[in-house]
Amino acid sequence: MNEKAPSTNTATATAVSPSSSREGMVRNPSRGNTTRNGDLEAGVNGAEHDGDVPHEHHRRHHMPHLIEDSAIPRAKDFVARFKGEGRRVPGWAESCKNALTHSWLNAFVIFIPFSWAAHWAHWHYSIVFAFSFLAIIPLEKLSDYGGEQMALYLGASLGDFLVITLDNVVEATLAIILLTHCELKLLQSTIVGVILLHLLLVPGMAFLTGGARIWEQHLKPHPTQLNHSLLTFGVLSLLLPLAFFTALPESLPNQTTGAPSSAVVLKRLVARAAEEGGHGKDVAIQEALMRSVETLAVRDATRGTFLKFSRGLAILLLIAYIGSRIYLHNPPGDENSLKPAPNAPAAEKHEEEKLEREEPQISPWFGIVLLTITVALIAVTAEWLVSSFEPVRDQHKISAEWFGIILLPLLSYAADGCIAILYFVRAALFFHPDSPDELAKARSIDLSIQFVLFWMPLVVLIGWWTHREMSLLFDLWEVAVLIGACFLVNYVTADAKTNWVEGMVMVLFYVMIALVAWFYDGQPEVHEMLRCGPVSETLALVAATLNGTSSEGGGEAGAHAARLF
Length: 565
Known about the structure:
Layout: H1 4-16, H2 21-27, H3 39-49, H4 53-83, H5 92-101, H6 111-120, H7 125-154, H8 156-167, H9 169-180, H10 184-210, E1 217-218, H11 221-247, H12 262-275, H13 281-293, H14 300-329, H15 346-357, H16 364-395, H17 400-407, H18 410-430, H19 444-465, H20 476-492, E2 497-498, H21 500-519, H22 524-529, H23 535-547, H24 552-564
Antiparallel strand pairs: 1-2
């Protein structure tokens, strides 16, 4: 009852306030009713008043003036809120102090200069990787803090969009750096890992910890229903290239006349290399190469086809995401992104009222500077991290699939994971402490949707502009796991209610995926299709290496090609 009272009062005040031209439009019967039902309801009301068509024509004639008049107070409200009018806005010194002392994880900033020094001084790769990993934790936390504070000046809807984008900044930076380094297979595994992390582990931990002492938790029903469609749409878009690739024939037809194809020649070379004593770990490489050279799909022409329609699919994914953001943040009707919808649940209205009452800890301009510096430091530190993890991966015998699907995405969850561990320690020692705000976030599913509908297609388009062969052809096992995760998340959130058992199931499914990924080496055909350079060149180098006729340089190239398989 206490939570509903302020929401009801606010909704009533909004409906009867004469200070806005939007409310004036609703009370003026000559202009029709401008509710969320749009022209249909307005036309019905006009027919009730006059019963003729000219009135409807007159209403449509004046509609541009109504939109123009309503846009002015919207812009003024946004500017006034961004300036912090009616609130105490901290100064620059106070803002800096609050930003540096808001979390104990800021103590990890000491690793930032160590990370840079380790890179420039050419320390051991493991040290560079460890320092860079630890340095990104406080930067990611500062980015979250800046986004949460800027949400106080932007409102709940626009603030959520900013926070979601900033929460993805670490993974997006890693994706772009991997693209520039031409680590395309690792890039795809990281994309899958980021989506799985925000679909399963992060919301699962939130549901598990947040619902431990209550019967069930509620989600916002309207965004949740839209998320089901967007998530399914994004995941199914990855199924199309894979189905196309799987449907291709496995051998060239009509090879009985003329010279044998290059695939047949390479197949003979590998068979002869195996007969001459290729045993042990080379057997797996030979078998993988045998499958690749006899597959019609693994060709430069086929890869060119996949690149063409992958770029088209990427553009369509971006259109879908932009359209969904317009619908969510600027919905049809009178309301806009600065205020909750009139039919919003009480919890959502209470959240908006809390944002309006809460005093910001930093000024808006300091927040912009903080986010700019933080994102720049994340980009540079992530560059050092990427440059060091390949030797670390080879030294510790970590598969590329597990490295990309599990380890790299955990960078973004390291800060929240530390807070979760601290929360459980406090719960064990002090009994039922207040849960930190980070554990109650339900926007992690929005992060995965943004990554699959915005960042993933954007990376494909950047690869097109930078001449990188990045396509939407993903590994079969990765796509199957994504579809399974999508099904589980949609089923758990179908009724817009969750509990701790459903959170536990989501976390356990993520652990299952991590366990299987440790033993999975990936599809060799997809590995080869994602190589920067001609496909035929790699196959020839590997065949020459296995045949024992390559030079020292060819041996290095063959070793590199062997790692692809």
